[in-house]
Write a structure and sequence with these properties.
Length: about 400
């Protein structure tokens, strides 16, 4: 991913790390537990889902055809009030199964009942980075303890400070957020400028946009970023650029909730830090990074009338390396010796991946989850040829459907 370089040869892993990448070589002293003939398929860094609400798989196709405001208040918040830790445990596992089948090796997840979610992540072998979800309805009182506990829970789990959004968080709570960032010199992440109503509401309350407000309050003094960034002004982009903040795009969710289209090309023109996420299954409804990467590449063409507005390799980097750096996974960003073995295999023998005129373009414009042959996290194969090694999918389907009975009728 560093320079669009494809190496023909071998990749070795040892424990949780990549130990060799290069031309095929024989080493008589090396004993492997397993050797895999990739048959011309492609190994690449796992896709990083840099904004999601994993346990929202419960709301998939449960409440659609709403705009964001009605969707949240009529369909989602009343159901989330009834969600139990057991719900979050099982519905997160369903999301992990979906992520693994789609070549996703880490997620940046904003939700609640985090300890039960962490248990599901570790049992599944999934790399889970939590983002604080605090707002005026709750979460701020536990935020610091979550930060301490979940950064010391398991090597697969980490926690970043975060809050839901400006429109759900009063000024006092925003001040508290800033103080906590300063106490720990920590980056902060939040939903930002997702809809034009959100930006207008913030201007009515404070006379400025959310990005300018958070910047003024010192919330971004130690970095961080924002999810969606659809309605950013040039000034907002300048702030994010100046501070090296991450803009995370969620094209499917923004289209489905009628929120708008992020002008991805404007972020690339400024050489900003960008990453990609699916958002939750309630607003997407798929959890496919391939679908996101396709839309993030082509949607700018509509506004610019320029079919070359966004370079596909820039988007592939955002979906892999960018996501890893955004969520602090500095060892999972590229395939290189010494890096974490968070690797996927793309089946180049699928009809949609042939001919190999340009592999990057094939991935962005033509691939889908069906092209993922193998997903490895931390040196362990968790998904291969449609089978899971840590998740009992039949059990997950049985349990989640049972739990839906308490959630569907509201
Ligand atoms: Zn979201």
């Amino acid at each position: 991913m560093q320079d669009d370089k494809i190496i023909e040869g071998e990749l070795w892993t040892e424990n949780d790390r990549i130990s060799y990448i290069g031309p095929a070589k024989t080493d008589a002293d090396k004993k492997f537990d397993r050797e895999i003939d990739c048959k011309g398929s492609l190994l690449m860094p796992g896709l990083k889902n840099a904004h999601t609400h994993s346990a929202m798989t419960f709301s998939r196709s449960l409440a659609d055809e709403y705009c964001l405001n009605d969707w949240l208040h009529k369909a989602i918040f009343p159901r989330e009030a009834k969600l139990t830790p057991e719900n979050v445990y099982w519905f997160s596992k369903l999301a992990y199964a979906d992520y693994l089948a789609g070549g996703i090796t880490a997620c940046f997840d904003m939700y609640f009942h985090k300890y039960d979610n962490a248990k599901a992540a570790v049992e599944s072998g999934f790399r889970h980075v939590f983002c604080g979800a605090a707002n005026d309805y709750g979460g701020f009182e536990a935020l610091e303890q979550n930060y301490i506990d979940l950064n010391d829970y398991d090597p697969l789990v980490s926690f970043k400070l975060g809050f839901h959004a400006e429109y759900t968080t009063c000024e006092d709570n925003l001040k508290f957020m800033s103080e906590l960032a300063h106490k720990y010199n920590a980056p902060v992440y939040t939903h930002i400028s997702e809809t034009s109503d959100e930006v207008e509401g913030c201007k009515e309350r404070y006379g400025i946009t959310p990005a300018v407000l958070f910047d003024k309050m010192g919330i971004f003094d130690f970095g961080g970023g924002g999810f969606h960034c659809v309605w950013f002004t040039d000034e907002d982009r300048d702030i994010f650029k100046k501070r090296g903040l991450w803009s995370v795009f969620n094209a499917c969710s923004n289209l489905k909730l009628a929120s708008g289209i992020t002008p991805v090309y404007k972020f690339i023109e400024k050489d900003m830090n960008i990453a990609i996420g699916t958002d939750g299954a309630g607003s997407n409804n798929a959890l496919s990074m391939f679908r996101e990467m396709y839309l993030d590449t082509v949607l700018s063409n509509v506004e610019t009338h320029n079919a070359a507005a966004v370079d596909p390799f820039t988007i592939l980097k955002a979906g892999t390396t960018g996501g890893a750096l955004c969520m602090g996974l500095y060892d999972s960003d590229v395939l290189a010796e010494g890096k974490k073995a968070d690797i996927i295999m793309i089946d180049m023998n699928k009809p949609c991946m042939q001919p190999e005129n340009n592999i990057v373009r094939n991935i962005i414009y033509s691939a889908d989850n069906d092209c993922v042959k193998m997903t490895m996290i931390d040196g362990k194969i968790l998904y291969e040829d449609g089978n899971y090694t840590t998740i009992d999918l039949d059990e997950v389907i049985r349990e989640t459907n049972k739990l839906m009975k308490g959630l569907s009728d509201i």
